[in-house]
Amino acid sequence: MRISYLRTFITIAETGGFMAAANILNRTPSAISLQMKALEDAFGTELFDRTKRPPILNRQGRAILGAVQDIVGEYDKLEQSIATKDFRGEFVLGAMPTTLTGIVPKSLAACQRRFPNLLVRLVDDHSAGLLARLKNRQIDAAIIITPLEVEPTIRWRPIAREPFIVIAPMDAKATKDSSLLQEYPYIRFNNNAWTGKLIDEQLKKRSLNVHMTMELENLQAVATMVYNGLGVSIIPQNCVDSGFPLPLKQIPFGNPPIVRTIGLAELSNNPKEQITQGVYEELVAAALSR
Q1: What interhelical angle do 3-15 and 59-80 show, nearest 10?
Q2: In terms of domains, do 241 and 173 share one?
Q3: I need a surface site. Which of 31, 152, 221, 254 has the fewest CB within 10 A?
Q4: For the segment 70-116, what is each residue's pLDDT rounded down to a tens digit?
Q5: Which residues contact 67 (CB under 8 A, 6 or more apart)?
Q6: Three-state SS for 242?
Q7: How many domains does the chain have?
Q8: Which of 187, 247, 251, 243 shows the shortest CA–CA distance to 219?
Q9: Contacts of 179 (CB under 8 A, 6+ apart)
């Protein structure tokens, strides 16, 4: 019996079908079916109700699912028992675009010293997209803001709090956040992102009517537009300096200012748990050393 067959069995249970598991595992449905037939032969019993479309776990399949997850988890821990310093392989880290010019490069510099044989591949996306990639096992961990819903298969740990600020050109006369937002054109951060939705909710809660003239997906681009006098905006203040901040007027958004919390998300049965722990520790250290 191969451990990969057990992983496939778990993926089918999590995704609900052979086809969905095949897409995630980059296998053909027929290959998945052959693996599961071999697994059933090894156990000496059928594990799926194939009268259903798509096939689903039957009573025996559901009964052994927990034990299979435990076996795979223990196997992964055994692999991880090798000294992490000698770990050779790839670690795929998802990160929000706002973190790529601050906390990510600072923490990865420390990670390279800690894990000299580790190859880190970065994937940038908004929090919702990164969470979806994590669930589909396309990435090993993700730096995201507090999830809208806490799911039992996801472990999320906080790294740092980032207050929101109103940014404006240096020559703007207003000194209150409400005045800046109502007197100048408003550049909105893409409201499809969780951060954008949080900002829009606060504007509505405070009954602040803004005149939106532009919408952008990249916070660095937003800051550049403001610097060039095209309006004002609301952005999170990075927990780690980016190294090349633009000269902008900065006023807290709200009293007290609203904040977002960024953290590291991983699957609860993460096979690279020790590496992820090391990455998390370096992210926290980078935030504290601001």
Answers
A1: 120
A2: yes
A3: 152
A4: 898 888 777 665 545 566 688 999 999 889 888 999 999 888 888 88
A5: none
A6: coil
A7: 3
A8: 187
A9: none
